[in-house]
Write a structure and sequence with these properties.
- The chain is α/β, with parallel strands linked by helices and 345 residues long.
- The protein has a domain of 227 residues: TIM Barrel.
- It is built from eight helices and nine strands.
- A hairpin with a 2-residue loop joins β7 and β8.
Length: 345
């Protein structure tokens, strides 16, 4: 069923047609005046032009747009840390080392210590004597470091070293060692590399400390030497004990004191004197400096032979006393290797 007066349905279309017919008749019947007016209006009114749209100045596009740049964007420079400027090396002057010369035969020398210091110096028991210095012909000098017993310095060591330097001689060093008294044993027996819980170890430590004491004085005086000769003999007023094993402990400790400090060692003595102090102590066959007493150069040279060995080492020098001086002569072969036993100034 359709809706009365509605827009749909069979009757809605007929109604629209009837209405249109009626309206057309009315317009024609009114004399067509309305249509004429409309025609006149259409003739006098010009068609409206499409208004032009004028953009505001701010909206105008620029005359030319820049084209996109095709150039690559420069890469950001990587900061490279410059290495520090090399340190300027200081100018170093290396002193030219003098080597002891090589000789063709026996070489004459001498040894000095506290007796050659000006009179009146040193400890009361070993006052200096002002004895003469080595002969002008001497090529080398062995300088003593002590004023007799251990822990006593040669009172004019520095001036004796200067004397050798001024003459451009070869130099070496020797040191007397001695048995400690109770006070010295108490002071130094516990200081060193040996077992302080034993008497032997404490005596070894005393010998060790005697060597360090001597080396401190050697360095303070400016004395250079590749070797220190250990003087093993009776020391008047500062006697060794009657126990050779105890005495040997002191000498063994002294030997280590020098070698631990970078020095070579040798022994100064005679077979009888050495055995009388330390018995059969062996230091490993180190070089030997053999005394001949108040004899002659010929006798001193004869001491270089195997019959005079002290502890199994080779003879390097023989010593004798003459002209109020201790004179020395090298044993055969030593003249070719003086650098082992002497420093050349």
């Amino acid at each position: 069923m359709g809706i009365v007066g509605g827009r749909t349905g069979r009757w809605g279309t007929v109604g629209r047609l009837a209405a249109l017919t009626t309206a057309a008749a009315l317009l024609t019947g009114c004399g067509g005046k309305l249509m004429d007016d409309l025609d006149a209006a259409s003739e006098t009114v010009a068609p409206t032009e499409t208004p032009s749209v004028t953009a505001s100045p701010s909206a105008e596009p620029p005359e030319s747009l820049p084209s996109p740049s095709l150039e690559p964007v420069p890469a950001r420079k990587k900061q490279v840390r410059k290495p520090p400027a090399p340190l300027k090396r200081p100018d170093i002057t290396v002193p030219r080392m003098k080597m002891p010369p090589v000789f063709d035969g026996p070489v004459l020398g001498g040894d000095i210590s506290w007796p050659q210091c000006p009179p009146g110096m040193g400890i009361p028991a070993k006052r200096t004597l002002g004895m003469p210095m080595p002969l002008p012909q001497a090529k080398y000098v062995v300088i003593g470091l002590t004023n007799g017993p251990g822990f006593t310095p040669n009172p004019c060591l520095e001036s004796q070293v200067d004397w050798v330097k001024e003459r451009d001689l070869m130099a070496s060093a020797y040191a007397v060692h001695s048995y400690p008294d109770a006070g010295t044993l108490a002071q130094y027996g516990g200081k060193g590399p040996f077992d302080a819980g034993t008497t032997r170890g404490r005596l070894q430590n005393v010998g060790f400390q005697q060597s360090l004491y001597n080396l401190a004085n050697l360095k303070a005086a400016g004395l250079s030497t590749p070797i220190v000769w250990i003087d093993v003999e009776p020391v008047p007023t500062f006697e060794w004990s009657t126990d050779k094993a105890a005495n040997a402990a002191v000498i063994a400790g002294a030997a280590r004191g020098y070698t631990d400090s970078g020095f070579g060692i040798g022994v100064y003595s005679t077979p009888a004197l050495y055995e009388g102090v330390v018995g059969e102590l062996s230091l490993g066959g180190v070089p030997e400096w053999r005394a001949a007493g108040q004899t002659s150069q010929a006798e001193a040279l004869s001491r270089c032979g195997p019959d005079w060995t002290i502890q199994g080492g080779d003879g390097v020098m023989g010593q004798w006393v003459q002209y109020e001086r201790d004179l020395n002569i090298t044993c055969p072969g030593a003249e070719k290797q003086m650098f082992r036993f002497f420093h050349q100034y």
